[in-house]
Amino acid sequence: MMVAFLSAISLLGSSGENYTYGCIFNLVYCGLGFGTPIVAYFYLPVFWELQVMSVFEYLERRFGVTARLVASLANFLQTSLYTGVVIYAPSLALEATTGLNGTTSILLIGLICTFYSTIGGIKAVIITDLVQGALMYICVFCVIGVALSEIDGGVSRVIEVASEGGRINFLNFKLDPTERHTFWSLSIGGTFFFLSLYATSQVQVQRMLTAKSIGDARKALFINIPLTLSLTTTVSFSGLVLYTYYRDCDPVLAGKIKSHDMIMPYFAKERMTKVPSLTGIFISGVFSASLSTVSAVLNSLAAIALSDYVKPLLRKLGKELPDNKAAFYGKMLALSIGFLSLAIAFLASKLGSLIQAVTAVHGAIGGPILGLFTLGMFFENANETGAVVGTVFALVFNMWVAFSPKPTPRKLPLSVEGCPNSTLIYTTTIPPEMDESSFLYIHRLSYLWYTPIGLIVGIIAGYVASLFVRRFSKVPISPPDPSLFTPFVASRIRKRCEKEATTGSQVFVLDTKKFDNIDS
């Protein structure tokens, strides 16, 4: 599940993250362990019982069409932003290996992905998740193998150098929420991040519903944990290996590349060319994963736009979309969305590292969406007006928090002492550190808190708004459908309904006996 979703972002972003900030980021996968049981036993049963084709169909049944439309639009925005980051990721590899400038690289990757998806439609998604995963493993092992062959001391030397450079930095238990990475922000924020990723994602829920039974779906979720950890641990280790290799001559400080997300493709270009085809295998792995992901996402967004926006609009105008024209409209929508994502790709570099960018995007929008689903599944008193008000408020608030200007995170020490002509490199101008006190406190929060903030704000605002609507509305309240709630809430509703039915039945019997006595 995770391999297809992160693709090149995981490959390039995780290695760059561990190289620059240390391996503490891997604590985020504690959240995968904490979040998976919650998904398996509280969210999945609802979708399994309903067997909905779209997660947004649940919202229409629980609340109404407006709630579905709001969530669908928010998801559309989130996925478009994510696709922009996915397009941006392989452009870094292309720039590092070919020397093309960033603008040309983004344009080339974006246009290829867009036209590939548009021409082929859903059939263009021909590279399976298994192949993507295999290619990613091959890429990483090639990098690790070549780098270790040139490091005296092998793995033990990597651990030693990484420790000396402060890269083995798991033990950060600070309670400061403005600290970029701590045990608390990674484990708690990671839990909510993976909840939004698996509990209410159209792609992930669809995959879970293809299982033969809910038990098999749960097994798939739990098996996903070690598979994800094996890949992410390997990619993270590659970042430490590359740090050891470039310890005394950092390519970014030396002016060779512009971002540490480019460190792996830069190494592939510089050192893997001595083995025939290795560089080509690496680049093909990065590109195939991204191409498949972008193609799948664009076609998915086109299908959502067609079913949720175009067809309802035509029906309101008294028209129907013929099946023979639906495919054409779908291709045109995919093309339009592709160009939108291409434009977003140019902004992706402003969001920080790849890992931070994709986490921030999903947190800013995924948190309120998760809050909407949670409000529907866990709170009986929630109604459509309250849910929509709460979600819109949470989206606006969270995006204001996430996308406002922020201080630049501090990187761990890097060096150019071992570079050729290092005395010349020291003349490079280093921008002064930004004064953090000039930013609002809420804008200094770690990006890992965006998902829980969006969830909590959405639930509180939605619930309070629902209570106001119930208090002042004269519309009769219909009894809740237990199938639309998480198991323990559904059980409570069923017991209450059974009790009310039993009480009503007893009253009816007593009344009948009274009438019988009168007749006698």
The CATH homologous superfamily of the largest domain is called Sodium/glucose cotransporter
Largest beta-sheet details: none
What kind of oligomer do you see?
Answer: single chain
- Uncertain spans, ≥5 residues at pLDDT below 50? 121-127, 423-431
Number of helices: 18
Alpha-carbon Rg, integer: 26 Å
Strand composition percent: under 5%
Give a structural overview.
It holds the Pfam family SSF. It is found in: Cell membrane. This is CG32669_1 protein. Its main location: membrane. InterPro entries: Na/Glc_symporter_sf (IPR038377), Na/solute_symporter (IPR001734), Sodium:Solute_Symporter_SSF (IPR051163). The protein has 520 residues and is an all-alpha fold. It has two domains: 2-427 and 440-472, Sodium/glucose cotransporter (Up-down Bundle); 486-519. Helices cover 71% and strands 0% of the residues. It is built from 18 helices and no strands. It has helices at residues 2-21, 30-50, 55-62, 65-98, 102-120, 129-149, 154-164, 183-198, 202-209, 214-245, 263-271, 278-316, 323-348, 354-378, 384-403, 422-425, 450-472, 487-519.
